[in-house]
Amino acid sequence: MFQNYLIIAWRNLRRNRLYSALNIGGLSISLAACWLISLYVWHELTFDQFHDRADSIFRVITRFKMSGSDDGLALSSEDVGPRLRQTYPEVIQTVRFKSVPVATVRKGNALINESDLYQVDSSVFDVFSYPLLFGTRTALNRPNSIVLTKRLAETYFGVADPTGQSLQINNQLYTVTGVLQNLPTNTDLTFSALLTWQDAPPSDEAVFDTSCFTYILLADQTKADKFRQKLYQFDRTQVLLRVKALGYDIKLEHQVQPLTELHFVGGLYDDTPKGNRLYLSIFSVVAVFILLVACINYMNLYVAQAIKRQQEAGIRKVMGAGKPQLVSQFMGETLLMLSISTVLSPLLLLSIRPVFEQLTAIPLIMPPVSFIAIGLGVVGLVGLLTGLYPALMLSSAQPVRVLKGQMYGAGRQWVRRSLVVCQFTLSVVLLIGTLTVRQQTKYLQSKDPGFVKDQVLVVNVPADETIRRKMTVLKASLSQNSRVGAVSLGLNPITLDGKAGIIRENNGQKTEQMVFFARIDEAYLNLLRIKLRAGRNFNPAVTSDKNRAVIVNESFVKWMGWRLDQAVGQTVKTSAGDSLDQQVIGVVNDYHFASLHNRIEPLLLYYRPDTPPNVLVRLKPSDVPVVRSAWARLVPNHPFEANFLDSSFQQQYHQEDKIKTLLSWFSALLVLVACLGLFGLATYATEQRRKEIGIRKVLGASVTGIVALLSQDFLKLVGIAILIAMPLAWYAMQQWLQQFAYKIDLSWWLFALAGGLAIGIALLTVSFQSIKAALMNPVKSLRTE
């Protein structure tokens, strides 16, 4: 029996090739998109869960609390991990990761800058389950040892086992003692090599030296909440006493974060790049939208096709077929089409996967079997529910009526029309969302940051004091070149040196807050066209500018409660003591030293030209070799590393750019599938009104009039969908825009444009079928009358 149903189903698919192609194509494309989004969401939600004891691993973070601020750092001091292990028996093991700021590797005569190298404790393999290809878990027990990832090992040694080989990094020889499998992309802390730990020199202020990521492995039975209480006691008995002994009025606290939650926990300085749960929710909703629209599309197309098959159902009932048999037959057709779509969707997924990976910079990896099984189960359930409505409708047809030519279901148009409204409501919501994201991204990238970012080359200077002191010579050399507009020794304007504790007095009350600061020289403001609102610039001839002067921004002036015309000459008191107090000599306009996700905060600019972290050069892109040559002459043992400021500025919004592109593609896909459903309903309507159209043509109706008659009902449905979609989209986009300190207003034209696009696309879709019906010879539709 089942075999017979499949044979009949296959024959019907072949007989109705257009409808079959539309159904299978729509389902295949939708399933491929849903698989793609599901893989992306699964990738984001499974960060760091590949470690054997992931649920027992926690990261220790540091919070600096003052009377007016509370700042969190992802880093901690070097002695926190060892102290915790000595103090609490439930801390089984600890490991520290300390970034190597600059890693210059020698390969033959070539020098290569490598990133993401970390010094770690030898216990790293006792805490984390990184798979070793070569070497053992004791690979980092010896001094000057290094464990490479597979990628880095193949770069320098090829595919052979490199253990025992030497590698020169920063003029120091390391012995390769192991090779790790390349890290999965869903891990919070990425690295290319691990070096043996080197303790920093002892210091009384080591408690403030937050220089490493600290991870602890707790015993399986340990409750995180109970350990947090012990950590609070640890800070009171060991940390705060050391802070007070140094004379600081700062409350320093430590907290722990579960490893498996790090990817979505933001708001910390010096942290690794984070994911965004909001974007995951958006894409999850998009996947549901696509699946819903595909199901509605299938039902409408199937119903439109079923009109021609009601006589078949009637005949089968007359011949003795029962309702369960008819339902089974028509459900068999649904399952056959769904099976074909399920097979085709992975092929489509493989074809669009490279484009998706390029857009998101996330390589999609093969999920576990359980993920695939759940996915197939959901697909089967959706297919069952989707095919049930048309199958029940066909099997419920009355034989006498359908054999007389009366079509069953003509009075249930409201169901199909409601489904079309639902389709286009979802489509318009996503269209409005896509347009909003595009406008917000454009706004972020085009808003004036308060400085001129074009044609500014930012040269990265290694964290080597000897090299940094040579930069004054580089500046003098470049300044004499006619192809160079200006040179400054200072910090990249969209990065910061750190924070300093500042005391603010207001109505006799003192509050302390950590304030951002940056090191610059006298050419910095002019090179970036940052405007002075009051006072003067730094002057190398004024001795006090080097250690007792500061330039502040307008936000700092407002925060201190000063008037702009009274700010110059004021004293900035630091929590470190009177010896480090500064005098304000100038006020600059507020400029965006961070992304537009955050409001401009108070800023201090210090005159520190002797050891600059960056060299800023204004010149054309074609003149970069001038800087490269000057660098090579002055610092031959370190590779030249630079990028243009406008490129770095745009990179701050790569996530929004990525979302914009993906939403555009998924919106187009959703509208396409929705139009297939509208096409099916238009086909159904023209079939039902075939005789009416023939009579109207005989009575003199024009083609234009008939097209308008057939189209107006569908345009009403799209209009209703637009009215429903607008408030939903407005609410959703308002919620999304809340994450930005600077954002666009939701203008009326965004909604009008989305509505216009929906109406235009719907009109084109319906017009095709309407024109075809209007041009039909009336004799064909009336010859049976």
TrEMBL record:
Domain of life: Bacteria
Domain MacB-like periplasmic core: 20-231, 454-591
Transmembrane segments: 21-42, 278-299, 335-356, 368-393, 414-437, 662-686, 698-726, 746-766
UniProt topology in membrane: Multi-pass membrane protein
GO CC field: plasma membrane
Family annotation (InterPro entries): ABC3_permease_C, MacB_PCD, Macrolide_Exporter_MacB
Keyword annotations from UniProtKB, A to Z: Cell membrane, Membrane, Transmembrane, Transmembrane helix
Chief subcellular location: membrane
Domain ABC3 transporter permease C-terminal: from-to ranges: 285-399, 666-778
Pfam family membership, one: MacB_PCD
Compartments where found: Cell membrane
GO molecular function, one term: transmembrane transporter activity
This protein's name: Uncharacterized protein
Organism from which the protein derives: Fibrisoma limi BUZ 3
Phylogenetic placement of the source organism: Bacteria, Pseudomonadati, Bacteroidota, Cytophagia, Cytophagales
